[in-house]
Amino acid sequence: MRYIIIGAGAVGGTIGARLAESGHEVVLVARGAHRAAIEADGLRFRTPDGEQVHRLPAVEGPGALGELRTDDVLVLAVKTQDSEAALDTWGAAPVAGGGTAAERLPVVCAQNGVESQRIALRRFRRVYGVCVWLPSTFVEPGVVSAAGAPLTGILHLGRHPHGIDDTARRIAADLESACFEAPLAADVARWQYAKLLGNLANAVEAVSGPIDGQEARRLYERVRAEGESVLAAAGIPYASVREQQQARGDKVRQEPLEGAARGGGSSWQSLTRGTGTIEADHLNGEIVLLGRLHGVPTPLNELLQRLATTFARERRPAGSLPPAELVRRADEAVAAAGGVAFVQEDHAARS
Q1: Distance (Å) of CA 64 to CA 1, 6, 93
Q2: Is the Cβ–Cβ distance between 135 and 241 less than 8 Å?
Q3: Does the global pTM surpass 0.90?
């Protein structure tokens, strides 16, 4: 199979580099300075083992490839806010022998949140979801890093909305050969919703810096409690913290990388790069949406969704809102919502 990595940033670039290292055919899809750097000097991939340079085809769109092949696998690794445009572009691409990519090829959504595979399923007949546990960083154009060791990451994989098929098994086997663990999960959404609860911290980190103080940690606990209450009200199961810890163990330790320090998660990186967009609408915003659908107040996630989006749009510096000020605004938001407070629970029984 040939893997076309749509969005060769931190996650996509890492998956593409590791697959190429293990002998698989890979095409990278990138834009602007990143694509130009890859074309000129290759993709520089930094890991605890050192730096490797991968000279891989880099394209901006499907037109550069002509007809797609019947053995192509599309790996969608853009941020969720960019999914619709990417899926429309690649879904319409012709495939050798007739038909389009949307009709004939599998698309694998290797992204945060739960929305992209729903968007994809409106267009593609064969959609696969991935729960991405992969510490990686877009360092600069042409350079990505992945600090995980001994495994680079863990990628739970399954067909969306549910099930496992031969294509999923083949993709998982290729990932397993490429320094990943890729457990097959017929209920992959359980893992994605569990990851979503963790990703609610992304906006806190993006606007206010690392969550390493008592105030910030307590705020995240309250934000997560909102999320857990919403998922419980919606009847959505998710893997418990204990189950996640057992699955991950010590398989993906984050090692220091010379010249490629990991400054923060995906949302923090978006602000640092000044992209003008951020995925908070599909992380904290997913909890807000579910809360409105099921009558559960979500003032803290609403606040973080709004702040993160504003920071991105106005290109404010990552981490520039003092934690004490964020907590003050959070308390005001809760008070305005009627003083709603949630107690964290481990809904292991539901999962």
Answers
A1: 19, 13, 11
A2: no
A3: yes
